[in-house]
Design goal:
It is built from 4 helices and 12 strands. It is of the alpha+beta class. The strands form 2 sheets. It has a 6-stranded antiparallel barrel. It has a 6-stranded antiparallel β-barrel with strand order 7-8-11-10-9-12. α3 crosses α4.
């Protein structure tokens, strides 16, 4: 589990590919490796990956992760090149403040940067989502104004949502621009998207209730909402 508060920008220093996937070596990362162990989870551009090797001193501190083909297909990590910088966050510790939102590190899809506009010292950025994911549904259902979205692992607040165009926008303050890779990405660049998982659970519970399953509490709530809607309709 992660918070979406990026700790560090690491540099891709080596890439090894084969038919089974890809190994990334990420350097200049010493300040997040002090308590690292092989097998730990680190979110790289928002994707939860397992540390397979590390050295906190060599190369300014490096660690290596393995990306299966599923991860390469679903994220922008397969497009990284040596020298690219990536957002890094260690798994959340139990004793720290929870400052972002619940981020699992499970990327849903990628979006494309379609517009950038300075707003004082802040930056407004708009994104285009695909019409549907590989599962065949739109993620716009889970995006609401003032809700959360994780973009390349960064917890950001949605400022605009256009369901008809499958577009949404965020504002990035100056401090955040300096801490993450988004501000440096050009128009047309792909970013990793993870929508708020709470919305997924709510949708599944309601859908189960409408189908006659699910918990009695949720089913009772849905029935009450439908009954009230029908009562209003009859009175009109």
């Amino acid at each position: 589990m992660f918070t979406g508060l990026i700790e560090h920008l690491g540099r891709v220093s080596f890439i090894e590919r084969d038919e089974g996937g890809c190994a990334l070596t990420i350097s200049d990362s010493a300040n997040i490796l002090g308590d690292c162990r092989v097998g730990d989870s680190i979110a790289v551009n928002g994707a939860c990956l397992t540390v397979t090797e590390f050295d906190a001193a060599q190369g300014g501190g490096y660690f290596k992760v393995w990306l299966a083909n599923e991860t390469l297909d679903r994220t922008n990590l397969g497009d990284r090149r040596v020298g690219d910088y990536v957002n890094l966050e260690r798994a959340m510790a139990g004793h720290i403040r929870f400052g972002g939102h619940f981020v699992q590190g499970h990327i849903d899809t990628t979006a494309t940067i379609v517009r950038r506009q300075p707003d004082g010292e802040s930056l407004r950025v708009w994104f285009q989502l695909p019409q549907s994911t590989s599962e065949g549904h739109s993620l716009m259902t889970y995006l609401v104004p003032k809700g959360y979205v994780a973009i390349d692992g960064t917890s950001l607040t949605l400022t605009e949502v256009d369901d008809a165009k499958s577009m949404f926008g965020v504002m990035v303050i100056k401090h955040t621009q300096e801490k993450i890779s988004l501000a440096k990405k050009p128009l047309g660049a792909k970013v990793n998207i993870e929508v708020d998982m709470v919305g997924k659970y709510v949708e599944k519970s309601v859908a189960a209730a409408l189908a006659g399953g699910g918990s009695n509490a949720v089913r009772g709530l849905v029935e009450k909402i439908v009954e009230e809607a029908l009562t209003r309709q009859r009175s009109d």
